[in-house]
Design goal:
This protein is an alpha/beta fold. It has one domain: Nucleotidyltransferase, domain 5 (2-Layer Sandwich). Helix content is 50%, strand content 17%. The chain has 13 helices and 7 strands. A 7-stranded mixed beta sheet has the order 1-2-5-4-3-6-7. A hairpin with a 2-residue loop joins strand 1 and strand 2. Helix 6 runs parallel beside helix 13 and helix 12 runs antiparallel to helix 13. 39% of the residues are buried.
């Protein structure tokens, strides 16, 4: 227990340094104290070598750049289609497109929130799905902004990853550019968490979000309003089981993500970054399936 308490205290001090912009102190703490050694299930599944694995080998993608007020700043961009990562699930994209294109004919607006009415008026290409990963509830650092869009009859995932704490500014800038092109934002608990974090961290870095605020469909609120009495809880992975018929195997727990990211920054070993990206991608995919469920009125199925 004492060891766990010490680890929690170390992580709290570390994330406070990062949130305050004191990257040098954070790096020194990482070097001095090391990490807790969370089991790298993802690396063993993929049969990766015992040595450090870089981002390109673990995750694909490439270095990109965002234009900030003092010039271009790098970040890492992983751009994939649903067919690239889950060819067995490509029908999700066609189902989503078909429902979105027919939503005006089959959707009862009398029971709809304003945000859901906006969604039902949209083309499938108009929705921007977003989910972030952070350095923990006690930290204000965003290190991954995952986005999903429908384009050329495919679901496209764009995951903007900060290779170190200073690149948070560039991934927020990249999100701001994409946000400005959307028509409706779709999140899960994003009104309380994701967008609040993005606004706070954008203000910290001096990143300007577009002045036009998009209509925002928070799927957590919609699901609770319709089906909370039929479900054991409204956590995203619970909804994934009841609405999508999918159970995650070997998924990195959300509580392990901050420590895994700190380890990557300290060592450059990207084994668990691949697991974090997969976790984020599944969250985005489930959101599209929940939009379909809400627009068609298809309630939760028995497990």
């Amino acid at each position: 227990m004492a060891t766990r308490a010490a680890r929690r205290r170390k992580l709290e001090l570390l994330t406070r340094s990062i949130a305050a912009g004191d990257v040098a102190s954070a790096a020194e703490m990482l070097r001095a104290h090391g990490h807790s050694g969370i089991n790298r299930r993802g690396a063993s599944r993929r049969g990766v070598s015992a040595g450090p694995v870089d981002l390109a080998e673990a995750c694909g993608g490439a270095v990109s750049a965002a234009e900030t007020f003092d010039g271009a700043v790098e970040y890492y961009l992983i751009r994939r289609t649903l067919a690239d990562v889950a060819p067995q699930d490509v029908s999700v994209a066609s189902d989503y497109a078909a429902v979105m294109r027919g939503a005006r004919q089959q959707f009862d607006e009398l029971e709809a929130s304003a945000a859901l009415c906006h969604v039902s008026d949209c083309r499938p290409e108009d929705l921007l799905f977003m989910d972030i990963e952070t350095c923990g509830l006690g930290s204000a650092v965003v290190f991954l902004v995952g986005m999903m869009r429908f384009e050329d009859e495919q679901l496209i995932f764009e995951q903007c990853f900060a290779r170190d704490y200073s690149q948070e500014r560039s991934i927020l800038t990249a999100f701001a550019a994409r946000y400005g092109q959307g028509r409706v934002l779709v999140t899960f608990n994003g009104k309380s968490f994701d967008m609040t974090m993005i606004r706070d961290r954008s203000a910290f870095w001096g990143v300007d979000l577009p002045p036009r605020e998009l209509p925002h469909l928070d799927l957590l609120h919609e699901i609770r309003r319709r089906w909370r009495k039929e479900l054991p809880n409204c956590r995203l992975q619970t909804l994934e089981r009841y609405f999508c018929g999918r159970r995650r195997v070997g998924d990195i727990p959300g509580s392990a993500i901050p420590d895994a990211y700190h380890r990557y920054v300290a060592t450059g070993d990207a084994r668990q970054v691949a697991d974090i990206l997969h976790h984020n991608l599944l969250d985005l995919l489930t959101m599209a399936q929940l939009v379909v469920a809400i627009l068609t009125g298809c309630g939760p199925a028995a497990e």
